[in-house]
Amino acid sequence: MSDAGPALEIVEPGLLALVEDLGRPGLGALGVGRSGAADEDSFRLANRLVANAERAAAIEFVLGGLVVRFRRTATVALTGAPADVRAGDRAAAFNAPFAVRAGELLRVGRPARGLRSYLAVRGGLGVPPVLGSRSWDSLAGIGPPPLRSGDLLPLAGDHDGHPSVDVAPVPPPPDDVTLRVLPGPRADRFAPSALRTLFATAYEVTADSDRVGLRLAGPPLRRAAGAAAELPPEGMVTGALQVPPDGRPVLFLADHPVTGGYPVIGVVAAADLSPAAQLRPGDTVRFRPTAPAAAGAPPRGPGAAASAARSRRPPRG
Question: Which listed residue, of 37, 132, 161, 271, carries a Cα 20 to 30 Å from 141's Cα?
């Protein structure tokens, strides 16, 4: 069910703006990846703040710059990488619901830290679903394409009652990010020094990173003597640290391929994937080992308060 007529007009999409929801779980056997919001914690929080259903579609946008004209009065929330916000001539804030009046422009500046922000509108975006989801999969080219100036978006009427939270105190993305890593299914394909290198290195996120994965610059992870550079294709998951022949790991994000042929040295804990999705080119990231029993717990440190404010989520596929 969708509300009649468009409610939003994209005036400026910024660097990249996408419609995303929670993706297409369960279709991997058909060769279709899950996709969905890259920073799932921030996406869920945005919907909670406007009393939307959990998987209601929202806008994911990169490095701010989004300008939207509202054709009707709406309740909205912004989460993720924080930036200055103007609703008409009024200042607004991230991580709190607020109203935008009919005819007003919502403008989002450039964040000082973090990469991805989310705009949820009460009712959710009503673009047509593809294979059960309103998400854009950049690798497969499935779903609504990236938003452009002049695009008109309807609402879906996908909400649960009225907002019950005034503000969710969430700290900005931290300067130093450390991600917990579970042993990978192919760690035996690497030299004993490879894991030591992985956990001792501050990797730099490179400019060719995207929603498929973070490509990391640092010392190469050496293969075990006699180990093949490639394997028969096998299933991949979000958070997999795949190591191509050059030895420099790639951390798979939301739009990762369903299968891959390079060995996976480790898998980032599901609870740490949202901080990973906020890393921008030039940022550094470290890894530390963890046990399966601890992998589902929220991260400690600067991100702990954010995790407490957000709903828990199932493991990603």
Answer: 271
